[in-house]
UniProtKB/TrEMBL annotation, chains A, B, C, D, E, F:
Belongs to the HyuE racemase family. This is Aspartate/glutamate racemase family protein. PANTHER family: PROTEIN DCG1. It holds the Pfam family Asp_Glu_race. It comes from Aquamicrobium soli. It comes from the Bacteria. Coiled coil: none annotated.
Length: 217, 217, 217, 217, 217, 217
């Protein structure tokens, strides 16, 4: 059994962080979880143009890996190429936004999302509305910082805490990371706010494992 | 690491079937998954009185197992005692209805639910509405059969296919089992209808594994 | 004709206040309205465990009084045991939350709810969402005070006004009391804010009288 | 104490039926309930033009009766003039549609409405959506018959049963009468279908009694 | 081809401003656009009574102009008489509120509305909810000023900017004018806020032109 | 002034039909309306892969035409590339799905959509939900026919009437064409069903003209 978690940007540090974040889901004899970057794509998916530009290479990868993969996870909070990828494989394909929000519902009455900036916030909102997953969402709060700097910026930590606090004040009982690049801050945010911090890569891979299990036996 | 999947009825055949159904999620070195029945509870949770009557023994079990358990899953589609159980442990507690519906979103545009009968259908509907998870649901179709007979009845198979077909005609791209007792029909329904059949016990346990991972590292 | 208003906690001062609050609905020759406490239940329904723990004694009372009662009203804003109670009697059973919110719609464009604390606020929200009654609700504001102290606390009055003002600023044209124990503050809040204050016990009993009338003639 | 139930059409038989229907709410010493027709208005409110044409005489009556009335009920399912009437009196004004639908929520999981024809069906739908009261509504079924003939037509009975059955098949647990003129069929429909039949005049007057009580003491 | 834009108040300066505002839609050989005032109606539509009082003269005008008009636009944000007017003509009738909000959706993720005061704000909210057009609305902000003074008041400009800014802070990407009398501030608001300002008269007339085109060929 | 209506497929007959359909909006001295095909794109946009594959050429065209264009309309019911296109120009960009559905609201109480097949139906549904435009939609009915054959197929006419009738039976008062290629059937469907048939290219171009007007003066 193998899950393939695809980072649609070409930033290998990003992919390595993603790979580390899902390691608690690995076990000997359990489903294998591989993380890969796309090649030739932007270092951070910032704009809608970025989002749309990676769909083709993503689909080509999915098609090529389909035979030796049991489920795919698209590791970008825009769930880029989700419906196209489903056309090129018969295996389940999940997006981390949909899986992350769906998981957050199970952690409390309402959740909130930390977004990267105002533009992604609007895109996230549109996506979440399309998923029918806004009803228990208290809102989206941006940290206003380029995706590629989140993991290394001096101020990211502070901005994430501040965004998380605003969401908590609005009633959030779980905080969803609105970008795969926020993964290094999971423990920090969880401990500072006293709330579960949902790294959507973890949630999506776990859900994918469950979906693969549904197709067995 | 240990997940405890609790069957709130006292039917041990039921628990054994549940235990088998989640076995694809087990692996050496991975999260341990235990299934238990409650004692002294009904053989099938049919009525709201049944639902409410098992909350106290359920909570007592959760409290007692809390120290040696990383997450709890309540294996009844009514998600009986979900909020009470969360008060007696600091560990995550999931209900199979909420987790199953949330997972189904990731399998297609819309899903449908096979319910046991008209009374549970109304209770399911109320629950799903409270979860904010009706927007992509095509409906609930009952098989009109007592919970305790589902696994062994001669006509259950045919009734499940018929309910599943009605949901597919309404546009469902995934079928959620609205009772933990339907688990034996997963492969059959999936193959007959050509749609994913969501055994919510599997989905909830996989999600619980992911949620436990969120709290690590 | 007889309506039975049941206070699910065992606090007799509470029941007496409830009894006084519904007295404007009494008249010679009109429907008789009796208020009773449950026995052996908590002095205040604070937690979900409390809510769930009173369902069994509540249902036993409903069953026992069914023959000589025309409608039941559950006097706890959690509408505890509503669906179980409906299984043990053929008579109408109302919850004060559902009836109170439904009444508030008729008093203006939007309403708000004064909750007891953050935990009940989340439970109220879940209940109201399940009822499909959130669309014209501006929000829930907590007074952060134990149920059993509301009627007698020195600061309750001030906290209720403050919560009510926040709701009014958000656009509420009616304020719903999110706890049967707030009944002594109805005139005060109405006069201070210049808005209708909905004591949901009154609203639910009046609605029950109307529902009994539907079944006559 | 006095409630004034206003029939906005000028059909006195209609008003007399309405008057009889609310009689179970009358009692010596209780709130007085008066029913009046408007003068010079249509015999049945069929069209939107009819609806709008009665607002002015309705408001003039409300203004004139305001001092000696504690609450007004507008006895037309279009809730004609509701917001205008609220501007000419400080007393509560209720519409039978809003109060009837709000009451129906308390009678089961979902309700349905018997409408007069396709045009009123669309108007009802718009009204109910504006009220935020569609979430638990299974639909509206028309009897396709002029308002003024409903009470006396030979086929009305049969058409009402047929519309009610369709609503019941869709899951309705209560049937709301979408016209004040359907009041004579309450017992018949309730008994034939085995479901509560909501005469919205009764529900609205009962709710008005409760609202008057809120303003006392 | 002719569109008739009807100002339901009797303020001719108002009508003249409306007429100027739609002039960018005029062209030789294109659809003719005429603006008229009603006679004998209030100088500003402020209250629900005002709204309801103009329906009859509005309908009489529509009926009379029907033969020589291809579509009607009601130039009042309350969409007064929309459904009555549709009964007296077979030609399309649009309201500027519905058309303006529907257009605003096409300008960004979410929009906000500048209302005249708290009473109209509640009426707008009810209308927009009835239209099913609230889901992407960040809110309504009042300028608290009589309709008849908006065009000429010294403080209107500043109040409109302030209301617009509050909406922008809430995430609005387009600002809808909640009163036909705000038309003189379109360029100013657009330039000050850097957001599209939707004069709903323009939007509705353009939409009416498109609807007339649908019926051709 | 110039509106550019872009057909994202490379089928020139398709573009010519689109061009003819918007001709009622043309007039001397009025806004110029040009229609163009993309080059090298599929003959019909059938799949999500098709939808995503045309975004890049679409954006390049928009960027290149931006200086001499006042608004863009994307002539594909999937609104392909809408948000990417908005990033490469400061001019308004509209999608025919969003504009068509928004227009349909103004034509009656509820509308329905004729889709091409089950896959596009699901994509349409997701899009409409994301737009917040499902509340007054009775449903989507497919004609099950490839996009490229719609205009010329012998059976398309009959299938469109049949889909339209099903929508009318569900309560639709306007029928929206869910594909730019259905434009030849506008008059036929309107006359056969007696309902407005919304060619979304016309509606979107008219709305674009209005939006251009908002930015003038």
């Amino acid at each position: 059994m193998r899950i393939l978690l695809i980072n649609p940007n070409s930033n290998r540090d990003f992919t390595a962080a993603m790979d580390r974040s899902v390691s608690p889901l690995r076990a000997p004899g359990a489903c294998r979880i591989d993380c890969v970057s796309l090649e030739g794509t932007p270092l951070g998916i910032e704009t809608q143009r970025d989002i749309d530009s990676v769909i083709d290479p993503l689909c080509r990868l999915v098609e090529q890996e389909s035979d030796r993969t049991d489920a795919f996870v698209i590791g970008c909070f825009a769930d880029t190429g989700l419906y196209s990828a489903r056309e090129v494989t018969t295996k389940p394909v999940l997006g981390i936004c949909e899986a992350g929000l769906a998981t957050a519902l199970n952690l409390g009455e309402r959740f909130g999302v930390v977004s990267t900036d105002a533009a992604t916030l609007n895109a996230d909102l549109r996506l979440a509305r399309g998923y029918g997953l806004l009803e228990r969402c208290v809102g989206f709060e941006p940290i206003n910082m380029p995706v590629a700097e989140i993991a290394t910026s001096d101020t990211a930590r502070e901005r994430m805490v501040s965004a998380g606090r605003r969401l908590k004040e609005k009633g959030a009982e779980a905080i969803v990371f609105g970008c795969a690049g926020m993964t290094p801050y999971r423990a920090m945010l969880r401990e500072t706010l006293g709330l579960p911090a949902v790294d959507p890569c973890i949630s999506a891979v776990a859900m994918a494992i469950g979906i693969v299990a549904l197709a067995q036996g």
